[in-house]
Amino acid sequence: MTQLHDNIVGIDASILMHPRVWEASGHVENFHDPMVDCKQCRSRFRADHIDLNAACPNCGTRDSFTEPREFNLMFKTVMGPTDESGTAVYLRPETAQGIYVNYKNVLQSGRVKLPFGIAQVGKAFRNEIVTKNFIFRTCEFEQMEMQYFIHPSQDDEVFETWKEARMAYYEKIGIRMDKLRFKEHGPDELAHYAKAAFDIEYEFPFGWQELEGIHNRTDFDLKRHAEFSGKDLTYLDDQTRERFVPYIIETSAGLTRTLLMVLSDAYEEEEVADGDVRTVLRFHPDLAPITVAVFPLVKKDGLAELAREVEKELREDFATFYDQSGAIGRRYRRQDEIGTPFCVTVDYDSKEDQTVTLRYRDSMEQVRLPISELSSHIRKAVKEYRRN
């Protein structure tokens, strides 16, 4: 989102910002969930997730719920020497607002012109009523967000462009496209800032779940921050001399959810020779924690020393791992299980002709290569990788 784009810059905004930021964003006013408690067992629930006329899901008591009350989802703390004299501040519930309050700084110092984007990866915090659904409802999580600033007349076109670009990202990292879909937000589902919104969802083993959202936020955010800060956040086009408040197209993805998707999508168990079952993680090589594992066929006769030299040479270009323990077949399987796409074996012939065996994870095919050509061959294989 940054390195491969000429007009998107990265920042790392503060987790703790001025409390007025969250008034301007609408979080103080709108970022609530309805909460009820069971008076019998003290269990707490979101009021919109249960039938208030039914029995308590935890203890079975009927007519035991308190009246629904609003529960603000932001974590509140105090900045200052004491609770009494300090200022109430919030841990950010999203990273986007840090981008908006830094918009003018980036505009003035980053030598950017519309259209341009600001992206960041960072922690966000939500004071959930009930944490549940594994990583999908937690108090602390990692976000990847990009806000793209454009002329208001371009919003529909740019919105569609980023929808396509974000879906293409998942194909690029090797995700099966039949497991992905768009889900449009209906009129009653749109957030208070949104003109249009789509989610990208992935079909996990436990069902479809949201990975990220693409939103047309119009000029809501910059107008609100201008109003609350008193700063001019308009943009002056130096060609047309038109002054306007930019519209924003947002892409907002959950990094933790993306990791779970990559693991779920890559995991396979396949039957190989003699009814044996191989467990393999079919990561795209760009995502694999280890790109190349290097093994000596045996530890003796100088093979281990030569294998170490090969591994150190490959380490300059790739994430590598050295293993000399156990049978060679068992070492291959260990690397299959953690998703290593390539394994290199140094044997007795390697000492004579300076060649090694390169094994491909997905196909288990083995080829013989000169050590001198190993790096370039692997680099080409990574670039041309296509999942079977």
TrEMBL record:
<dbReference type="Pfam" id="PF00587">
    <property type="entry name" value="tRNA-synt_2b"/>
</dbReference>
<keyword id="KW-0963">Cytoplasm</keyword>
<dbReference type="InterPro" id="IPR045864">
    <property type="entry name" value="aa-tRNA-synth_II/BPL/LPL"/>
</dbReference>
<keyword id="KW-0547">Nucleotide-binding</keyword>
<dbReference type="GO" id="GO:0005524">
    <property type="term" value="F:ATP binding"/>
</dbReference>
<keyword id="KW-0067">ATP-binding</keyword>
<dbReference type="GO" id="GO:0004081">
    <property type="term" value="F:bis(5'-nucleosyl)-tetraphosphatase (asymmetrical) activity"/>
</dbReference>
<dbReference type="InterPro" id="IPR033731">
    <property type="entry name" value="GlyRS-like_core"/>
</dbReference>
<dbReference type="Pfam" id="PF03129">
    <property type="entry name" value="HGTP_anticodon"/>
</dbReference>
<dbReference type="GO" id="GO:0070062">
    <property type="term" value="C:extracellular exosome"/>
</dbReference>
<dbReference type="InterPro" id="IPR004154">
    <property type="entry name" value="Anticodon-bd"/>
</dbReference>
<dbReference type="InterPro" id="IPR006195">
    <property type="entry name" value="aa-tRNA-synth_II"/>
</dbReference>
<dbReference type="GO" id="GO:1990742">
    <property type="term" value="C:microvesicle"/>
</dbReference>
<keyword id="KW-0030">Aminoacyl-tRNA synthetase</keyword>
<dbReference type="GO" id="GO:0004820">
    <property type="term" value="F:glycine-tRNA ligase activity"/>
</dbReference>
<dbReference type="InterPro" id="IPR036621">
    <property type="entry name" value="Anticodon-bd_dom_sf"/>
</dbReference>
<keyword id="KW-0436">Ligase</keyword>
<dbReference type="GO" id="GO:0005737">
    <property type="term" value="C:cytoplasm"/>
</dbReference>
<dbReference type="GO" id="GO:0006426">
    <property type="term" value="P:glycyl-tRNA aminoacylation"/>
</dbReference>
<dbReference type="InterPro" id="IPR002314">
    <property type="entry name" value="aa-tRNA-synt_IIb"/>
</dbReference>
<keyword id="KW-0648">Protein biosynthesis</keyword>
<protein>
    <submittedName>
        <fullName>Glycyl-tRNA synthetase</fullName>
        <ecNumber>6.1.1.14</ecNumber>
    </submittedName>
</protein>
<dbReference type="InterPro" id="IPR027031">
    <property type="entry name" value="Gly-tRNA_synthase/POLG2"/>
</dbReference>
<feature type="domain" description="Aminoacyl-transfer RNA synthetases class-II family profile">
    <location>
        <begin position="20"/>
        <end position="285"/>
    </location>
</feature>
<dbReference type="GO" id="GO:0015966">
    <property type="term" value="P:diadenosine tetraphosphate biosynthetic process"/>
</dbReference>
